[in-house]
Batch of 3 targets.
Target 1
Amino acid sequence: MKSELLTALRSTKGFVSGQELCEKLGVSRTAVWKGMKKLKSEGYNIEAVSNKGYRLLKSPDIIDAEELKSIRKTAWAGNEIVYFDVTDSTNIQAKRLAEEGMPHGTLVIAGCQKSGKGRRGRGWESPKHDGIFMTLLLRPSFPPAKASMLTLVAAIAVAKAVRIKTGLFAEIKWPNDIVINGKKICGILTELNTEIDTIHYVITGIGINVSNQKFEKEIAPVATSLMLESGKEIHRAGLIEEVLEQYEFYYNKFCQTMDLSEWKEEYNEYLVNRNRPVKVIDPKEPFTGIAKGINERGELLVETEGQILAVSSGEVSVRGIYGYV
Ligand code: ATP
């Protein structure tokens, strides 16, 4: 009922009459009145005027499933939304939900994570209500070898959504981080469940620092938040919705060609490492060079000793020569 009420209130800038709400939702006047009372108690600022009805003036910074459903504009991303106030990790929960048969497009959201995950067993600092902790569950029909490109789909979706919603100059540190002014505001972790030539499911976890004011000592030099960078409060639900819209857009284009050729150039404009010296920390053989951009397979092209090497994301980390980017 909460998401239907919010959708109805958001369908107009003006008032919605009580009668209209009863008809739209198929409930009694008392039920509408109770619903409004509950919304107000959660922090929604709703004006009620006799003979006119109700008008939503302002929404609180809530990201539960009902709120997100009421603002969703996508065709499939977020078609099912599962919200946890506190959880271990949205990737862990998404895996569990995938095993239970939840569909392609399912979105898992948490208010806070107790054991947020980074790549190769590292952690992701996930303090209560300061960030966005979301995982998208996908059930693609393409072969497992293509799946690493999904991290790049998520990266461009987040960078673009952040630019749209905050005006901040978000850039991509290939392959899985989003940075602003050289500091990290987002990490992406894609995990797969596959057989030799089929994908059972893919989960892509996205952690965004939104209103963090400070970070643990170890990451403070390389981490920042949207609030620290913009000085403004950012509405998390609106940003999540924009990320889903952008994700769907780039994912659909990716599926048309099964590579990144449709938006490779655009991605390269977001690439913080482009034309900069980088250190490629390959466990087999680390090397330095100049990052030139990505190719249509999502590999990073690095010029070194007169030749261009294509680096695939797998086990590799990329750093700037003098610091993080
Ligand atoms: P790589 O380039 O090798 O992937 P990374 O440092 O970007 O390195 P990730 O796995 O993407 O590694 O992210 C995990 C790391 O990010 C942690 O080890 C920690 O250094 C840092 N980190 C953890 N939480 C946050 C956060 N909330 N904001 C920014 N950085 C964080």
Target 2
Amino acid sequence: MPNKSAIIIGITGQDGAYLAKFLLDKGYEVFGIFRRLSTPNFWRLQYLGIFDRVNLIPADLIDGTSLVEAIKISEPDEIYHLAAQSFVGASFEQPVGTGEITGLGTTRILEAIRHINPKIKFYQASTSELYGNNKSGIQNEDTPFRPASPYAAAKLYGYWITKIYRESYGIFACNGILFNHESPLRGLEFVTRKISNAVAKIVLGMESSIELGNLEAKRDWGYAPEYVEAMWLMLQQDEPDDYVIATNEAHSVKEFAQKAFEIAGLNWKNHVKVSQKFLRPLDVNFLRGDYSKAKEKLG
Ligand code: NAP
Ligand code: G4F
């Protein structure tokens, strides 16, 4: 049997790079969609040593024709849709752009699949942000959504359109409701890398402090390379479905900062300042995921 092939939309991001490595190791032919920027952004693929092993295709989520072209060229068995304006804070500054890219972009891909080959399997990068400020102490696939940002509203649309294409057209389409996941490849504006990067600079004497926003927010933080395996597992099941991927532990930003400074032999209180600049108009206070379904069905 010939090897399978996959398109990763958003291959230049954290998850895209780790998933590309994971699929290459499984023997897949990997196509990666990237958007044209004035300066190429392939550092993660280079860091993982796989830049020369992936087939890169330029396309943009706001340009449906470019997505159609990419799918026709690569004839994939599976599409992993990981591209998004993924920074929650920026979605308050660019709410319409976030809706276009993070919301409608998903429909553009699903429409392309429907017209070109509805047998292509589809993974949608859904998120724990969908739960927003839901009152439950732990969230699973049945917990009601209550999005609390333009980003989460756009992702809610993406979640539902994925289900709608599954139920209307029989497309094998899955939502992975992934809780926060981090790694050395995480973008520097997200809080974990922002903190770890600042700790390193402070230790090296390049900086003396870091400004943060809401220190009380709690997140369920996991490890990105493990989470991309869960994405793949969802597309290997007999039936398409939606799954929560999480660790079942919640920790605050304050705890994270405390630990990060402690590891470097520093007291966080001497270096962390709270700045209004990093407070969001609305924030999600508490996320903790119940992964029972994924444990039972995906192992
Ligand atoms: P990321 O590092 O921000 O990567 C996002 C990717 O989307 C990048 O490759 C980016 O390209 C691409 N992109 C943005 N706008 C685009 C456009 N208009 N056309 C084509 N590509 C575009 O995000 P991540 O952490 O890997 O997360 C992957 C996905 O999972 C995202 O959809 C995110 O919303 C979702 N998610 C993430 C987490 C998490 O904790 N990491 C949790 C739940 C869900 P550039 O490199 O050019 O910017
Ligand atoms: O690291 P964050 O920016 O991640 P956030 O908002 O939870 O979103 C990430 O995880 C989602 C899954 O739940 C993804 F869907 C999304 O794409 C993204 O990957 O912020 C985490 C928490 C927030 O409560 C934020 O207000 O940290 C708080 N925080 C406090 N100070 C800060 C800062 N966040 C950032 N980015 N920068 C700060 O200075």
Target 3
Amino acid sequence: MKDTPIISGPKRVTTRVIASMKQEGTSIACLTAYDFVTARILDEVGVDIILVGDSLGMVFQGHETTIPVTLEEMIYHAKAVVRGVDRAMVIVDMPFMSYQPSAEEGFRNAGRVMKETGAGGVKFEGGERVADLIQRTSQAGIPVMAHLGLTPQSIHQFGGYQPRGVSPSEAKGILKEAKILEQAGAFALVLEKIPARLAGQVTRSLDVPTIGIGAGAHCDGQVLVVSDMLGLYEDFRPRFVRQYATLATTIRESVRNYVRDVKQHAFPSKDESY
Ligand code: KIV
């Protein structure tokens, strides 16, 4: 049986709904998901946007960065997520090198994601350099979420996971690029790991909503990686993650109990047999 969403709201979250949430001051709840079961639970309880993030490269595939994730893998995960969702808007991250070579290539790959997965939009990382791509893609009717600040596909260029936009010149650049991405047609903008004050300035300067991750409380919505907030991924825990559960511990205890029961011939019981 399906749970009642915490937030009663529209039957389907669309770009129009997202835009009206900013106007009404309703905060947008976004989480990542990579599989059917998780997506279904997130959708049932009222998550507005489900992001099939390329963070799956780290928390699902076990890579050190998001760089190795392929377009085929994103499509595979996005199809599973879409099957679990009735209400939320599903956005698919475009992985490294699926759009960097040229706007034309990125645009075609975004079209492929839309056709093959049934998702509601795509996300590109980067500033002014992806403005042309965002314009083409959104003009073709594909909703685009932009992503500024700590953009993990550029991690080798940044040289680490330090906050971005701390220096006045970088902060100015983020403010300027946010406006360019909005003008190019982005319907929303992820701001990752930048000072809360800067995120507030960006949020006030845009008509489209900002979704923060490690960007403080002034954004129009928040996003977290689901495996981080559920305490499933234990390798790395940034300060901005609020952990709502300790699932890795729960799984360890459950599996330990199962192994014990099997070894002691305590499972299955008569009732669990035919
Ligand atoms: O890949 C991802 O999960 C993301 C979010 C953290 C915004 O880009």
